[in-house]
Structure formats: C-alpha cells, structure tokens
Amino acid sequence: MTQRQPLLEVNGLSVTFPSEAGAVEAVRGVSYHVMPGEVLGIAGESGCGKSVSSLAVMGLLSRRARITGSVRFEGEELLGVGDKDLSKIRGGRIAMIFQDPLSALTPVITVGDQIAEAVRIHQNVSKQAAMDRVVDLLNLAGIPNPRQRARAFPHEFSGGMRQRAMIAMAIANNPKLIIADEPTTALDVTIQAQILDLLQKAKEATGAAIVMITHDLGVLAGFADRLTIMYAGKLVEIGGVDDVFYRPRMPYTMGLLGSIPRIDAAPGTPLTPIEGSPPSLTNLPPGCPFTPRCPMRVDICREKEPDLLRMDSSGNGHFAACHRSAEIEQKNLKGVDIFPASEAVPSRIEDLPREGRTPVLRITDLKKHYPMIIGAILQRRVGTIYAVDGIDLDIREGETLGLVGESGCGKTTTIMEILSLARPASGSIAVLGRSTAGMTARDRFQIRREISVVFQDPMASIDPRMPVSDILAEPMVTHGVPAEERAKRIGQLLKMVGLRPEYTSRYPQEFSGGQRQRICIARALALKPKLLVLDEPVSALDVSIRAGVLNLLEELKAELGLSYLFVAHDLSVVRHISDRVAVMYLGRIVETGGVNRVFNHPAHPYTQALLSAAPLPDPRKERARRRIILKGDLPSPANPPSGCRFRTRCQKFADELNDQQRQICIDTDPVLSDHGNPGSVHRAACHYAEGEN
Amino acid sequence: MSSIPSPIVEEPVETTGHDSRIRLVLRRFLRRRLAIAGLVIVLLLFAFAYVGPHFYKWRYDQIDFEAFLQHPSATHWFGTTQNGFDMLALTMRGMQKSLIIGLIGAVLSTGIAAIAGATAGYFSGWTDRAIVALIDLILVLPGFLIIAILSPVFHGRTWLIFVVLLAAFQWMITARVIRSMTLSMKEREFVYAARFMGVPHWKIIFRHILPNMSSFLIIDATINVSSLILAEVGLSFFGFGVQPPDISLGTLIGDHWESAQTANGYQFYFPAILLVMLVLSVNLVGDGLRDALDPNAGSATGKGAASR
To answer: Residue B21's pLDDT is what?
Structure first.
C-alpha cells in the first residue's frame, strides 16, 4: 500500500443511547480507515451497529446519542463539529445513499429539483446550470429521457429508478466518499445488479471511496476491496476481501459464510446455521459477545473480550478478534469444521419415480385478471391488470417446487388464488386431485386441512395477543380436534420445530424472528397437511438464522413426506431447497424444470439474467463472472408488451437477434415447450431458447 | 407421527411478556399526574354516589317537613328543596343514574361501533356500502331533536330505552375509525393465516381483529362515558331525558337552574359542580389511558374523540 493519507479515519468510535431498559451500547469502540478510491464493506446482521456507526460518522444521530471517539475526514475532525459546519461537508465531500429510496426523497418536490437543490447548496451555479447538471447526472445514472424524467415526482419512479436518482444526487458534487447503507436491500435481484453496476460506474466517474453497509456478503464479494465484519457493536474481523472470504479467522465470520446458500453449490450441500440470535446491547456480560453462539468457546471467552489481532499468514491488514484465532490460523479451520452441519435426512418418497407419486397440487391455465376501475359511484372499467395470465404448475408428493420471479410478477397472486381455494375465473386448481371448481363450502373446509401456509414476515403472521398454545391450537380448534389431543400435539409440534415445549404460555413478542418463524411452521403443521405453501419464509430473517430455518424445513419435509410450494425471489435459497423450479415473469411461467437442469443450463434469457444477477459469496468467481444486466424495470402488468412479454428487456433480443428474428418475438407469444431431450420436463417459453440438448 | 429429535434451539427468551405489557402501560399511566388525579376523583365520585347514601341519614325520597328551602346546614349538608327533599341525597341519587347511563351507554356505543365498523371493513363490498350509508345517514340526523321527539314514547317506561337511544347517536365516528383500522388489519398476515386455516369470519373478527384494537376501544369507551353523561344531562335538562320518578344530574339541574341567580343558588351549584368534576376527571382518565396504551398517538389534547 502506498503511503497515502487515509480519507476517513475512525478511531474508537462508541455510540450509546439511553433507554428505559438501560443504556444501549450500539457501537462499542470501532476503528477503521478508508483509503481514497477504496471500497470498504461493512457487513453484519441487523442490530449489530453497522448503520449507527455510519450515521455517527455523518453526524446524523439524534441528540440523545452519546458519541465518543474520533472521526477524521481528510485529516479534519468531524465529531463535535456543529451541525451547520457538518452540513457543508455532507452532500458535498461526503454523500450518503439510504436503503429506502422512497422515504429518502421528498414526495412533493420533483426529482430534478431535489437533485438541483443538492447541487446549488454546494456549488455556486445558476439555476439553469444546475438543471443541466441534473440532466447529465440522471443520464449517467441510466434514467431514460432524463430531461423529461427530471420533472417527475418520486412516486412516479419505480424503486430502482428512485435509487438511481439517489445515486445521481449522491455524486452530484463529486464527493470524495460515498456511504451507502444497504443500497440494494429493498430491490429485486435484477435491479440490484443494475444498481451495483451503476455504483461501480459512479465510483469510476468520481473517483470516490465507498463505504458499503450491507447484511448480504454476496453483494460485497465482487464489489468491495476490503471487508469488515461487525458483531454486537464491534468489529470482529477486518481484512482484504479475499482474506475474509477464503481465510476467515473469527468463528462468527466462518459461520456467516457457511450459512449462506450458494447458487453454485450442489443441491443437498448442508448449511451450517449459527444457533441463537445476537445479544441485546444493554448490559452486555463481560467476555466475547459471540460466546453463547460460538461452537469453539472456551473459558476465557466468557471472561475477556478479545482484541483485534493481526493474522500473520494472510495478506496485509487482516485482523480478527478471537481468543482462538491463532489456533484457527494454524490448523486453517473452515466453517464446516467447527459448525455442526446437519446431515441430509434421506426421504422415503424420493426413491419413488416422480410419475409414481400422487399429485398434491395441479394448476392448469390459471388466470387472474383484476379490473382497473375508476370512480367511486359511477364505476367505469378502464383496463385490466393481467396479474396471472395462464400458468401451469404441478407438485407431486414429497416434492418442493420453487417459484421464482421479481416482485410484481404475480407470485403472490398465484398463491393467494391457491390458498383461497375459490373457483378461479379461468383455468383450474386441483388439490389432491380434487378440483376447487366443484367444491361446496364444506369440501373446501375439509381440504384446508391438507394445505397450509407460512408467510414471509414472522412478526406479522402471528396474532401478537395470543400465547403460543392458543396460536398452535387455533387450526386444531377450527377443525374440531379434541382438547386432550390438542395439548399433546402442541408439545409435539414445538419439539418438532426445535423449540422447548415449556414455551406454550409465552407470547410472540418474547421470541426472536427465527423462533417466531418456527412457531409459524409449527402452526402450519398442526393438522398434518400434505402441502405447505411457503411465501418467502426466510427473506425477513437474518442470514445466520436463515440457515437454521431452511435446515428445519428440509428435515420436516423428509420426515413427514411434505410437499412444498416455495415462493422466493432469492435464487440461491430456491436452489438449495427445491427439487423443481418455475421461473415467473409478468404473470407467465417462462421456464420450468428440475432445479439442476434449470440452474446449470438455463434456456430462457430471463432465467440466464436472473442467475447471473444473483451475487455469489465468492470474490474470485464473482470477479470473473460476466454479468447480464437487464435494462429497465418490469413492465406494467396492465399493459404487457405484444408477443413475447420479456422482449423489452431481453438481452438476446437486443444484442443477438437480427430484425427478422426480432419480428417473431414482437408478433408471436412463445408457448412453454419442451426443451432439450424429451422426458427431462425442462420447458421454456422462448423462440430462441438455448442450451445443448 | 413420530416427532423429530430436532435440536432444541438454545436461546435466551426474554422474559418480557404479556404481564410486562400491562406493567408498562401501568407505569406510563402512573407517570401522568393529572390522569391519576382524574382516576382518584372518578373513584371518589362513584363511592359518593353509591356508598354515600348508606352513611347519610336522609333518603332521596324522604321529605323533611320541618325544613323547606333551607340553606346548607349541619342537618342538611347541601340544603333542602322547596318540597323539603334533602339536596345531598338527591344529588347522590342523581349521580347514580348519570353514572350508570354514561357507563352503559359508552359500552353500548363502543360495542355497536366495533361490530358495525369491523363488519363493514372486513367484508367490504355491499355490506360495507350499506353500513357506511347508514353511518352517513345517522350522522346527518339531529340526534338531540330525534330523542326529544321520541321522548313521549319512553315516557313511563324504563330509562334503558333512553340509554339505547343515546348510544344509537354516538357510535358512528368510532365505527368509521374502526372500519378503516379493520381495512388495514385484514391485510395482515395473521388474518390471512386464520382465513386459510378455515376459521369462520365472525370468529376472525372477534378473536383476531377486535382484540388487536383493544387499546383504541378502551380509550374510546372511556371518553364516550363523559360525552354520554353530557348528552344525558342536556336532554334531561329540557325534560326529554330521564323522566320522574327517576332523578339524574340533568333533571336536578333542570329543576333548579332558575335558582342559580338567587340566594338559593346552592340548589343549582352542587349538582352542576359535581357534573363538571365528573366529566373533567373522566376525560383526564381517558387522555391518560390514551397516552399509556397508545403512546404514538401523541400527547392528547382531548380534541378529536372528546370534543365531538
């Protein structure tokens, strides 16, 4: 490393908030530096203090927070500087990009004016010059028709466009440092790839250093130069991105890396969950805060908190805070060595050939169109939203079907249609061979026993006012299970999902997110259903907890012979858990087949783009990958493009096809047809599906 | 089915449960001095109305032929009326009726509001439109006049009809609020979960939706108590409300308001001051409850629910 001055130097930064339960030590002595033009990643689970530490750097914390330590930017101390002076630096030399671009933009001012405001505060330019700069910036940020779009209001922008506008605003004054706080977390994987690409471009255009805060190590793998891992308000590991990924020396980092499902992993590769959840930051006990969750804990861990120690065998500047890091380094231990990986439980059903198993759910040509109505009294239909437009799905006993797609593609509508068991407007839904069309209310009630659901947000999907026993009893009461059987079953269910049977009288708010999701799964299993609909069951959970829930789902499936309809936008999770996969785009299935087949040889350009957009927690592979970046956003389902619905964003349509071939895409709607050798059940809806046969 | 020997997830479960929520609410309530003062006054007034008569030698229907229109004295603490009735005994009796009307009416009106609002919001469609239309209709009707016109109907019958009528003109705005709360709550995933389990609709409303608004319902009912007492007093004052032989604070004030300007003003001032104390302290309790149960609603100024 050259002897340059670091751009940002944070030394012993601590942040404490007073609260009713006692002081919350959100950040406890964090030190790091950022060199000019460097990308530093800060990773950690929610509540570990990563956002608070960066807000403290910017001086954006509330006045109640007690901040100590030192923050030097270009040699200038920022802590203790008045708000007015800080404002000259903020937005000028330091810019910030927030997670939620909707709340970061003022809704009543046009996007252009907001960016122009940022320009004019820090630069003495005329209104016209500022506006010209805005158009340049929006153009750089990849917003089509920038001059026109500058006059639009934030609500007229999609999530991805808003984040682009935020980035345009951040680079408006050629900052030296950009702090990006979870800039892609709220976005779809294809949009995430666009934004990461744009950040890279912004970095090249301005030469700014970037501090990137995220919980997703995969995002950092290809983007960051150096990486810090935070846990319980402290840095537990710092190092070059390769060092941290390939030679992690702190058990927490090792666990995190082992708990991420990988899109390039063979199915059945076990995940190593970190049990438990991060500690509360009030009244932390002495010793290493990771001790209760650490598989390598020894007595000293409980007594003394370890300091960051230099790791000699790695590259320069690799530090880890663990009493046993020397041992880990010497033996070169890996995550799988120290974390107990669960053994894959063989399922009885999987031996049967697929054709021999009973179909649990069969959907044919399901359509759900919503009328667009205006007027309150004199209602007028002005259009139709083609939310789901003719899809076929089929799930056999003991099988997991992963349904993937961007938000707005109709996944949720599909499962709501299935779960409501109503007669669909068009097409048919059959559960266990019985079509919902001819069902009486009684039949419908009976069939509800066989199909249950786990929702995304475990905080919202259980009634906060009921104790666990009532929550688990509810389905059984509804379906008339006698009281003594119920009591027995509740204990059984809790044990099954890895919770203590004594927890029955507790209320949901006493449990962590992962435990709550386990309660939801227990409730879903109460009536011994055949099919579980899992609507993004792990996307609201922290990475380390995710693995535990995924492992549980796999165990349960094998043990109880369940079938899953697993809806997710995270392809690596789908790859990990599914047997078959269906990719959805704008109300249609564009590709379906066995999970290995589809992930290894994607035939549809959309699937290819999705797979290439999914980040890999592997820096070398990530750097070597060529990313397909889709243009623009999902078109509106009210007005789908003619012919092939994907053609407006299709990289193949744009780059590879000639005009004659394109005309076919514009004119003809491709049907889902067998792809590759017959019998592989790999089907794709593309005129130019590719792949070897 | 065999249970899986899944490893028990060892996690320290926080011992902050339901009890602690109640304790937290209590702690927040106790922090508000005015609310406590209000609560103490309400309890004292209750004791005054219901326990007081047992310790007082005069009954409300007893005439002291030796004391007509007497000023407050050691024998008649609040003085007597023209007919020789003891004013304190009358006030205690009247307060009983006013309190009971306020309580029953408030529970009734919040109850109607809860059921109507939740039904409208939950089922939407035609049910919703019908209930909203009914709400709008009753809102434009002059409730005071209608009860006044109907007063001959319950003349000579039980005062409970009067309470029902009072409640019938009180629930609409609460019902609208509950309707909009239900609209957002029925989109919550735990309601979906119950629906997809096959739980009947009415059970979802009573088990999942209404209990999750209990803070609002409690606050609303409390504040309704004072508005109903005021409505009762207003109607009784004009003779349209509580009918003799029943006595309420309203009838007392109505019977004696003319004396307010005279030397016999005590006949008016005792019930009137007690009425103001009662309404004020109930409102203080309501505001305190709101701050304790629903701290995000901002410090209450009594506007909104109380001033309608």
So the answer is: 67
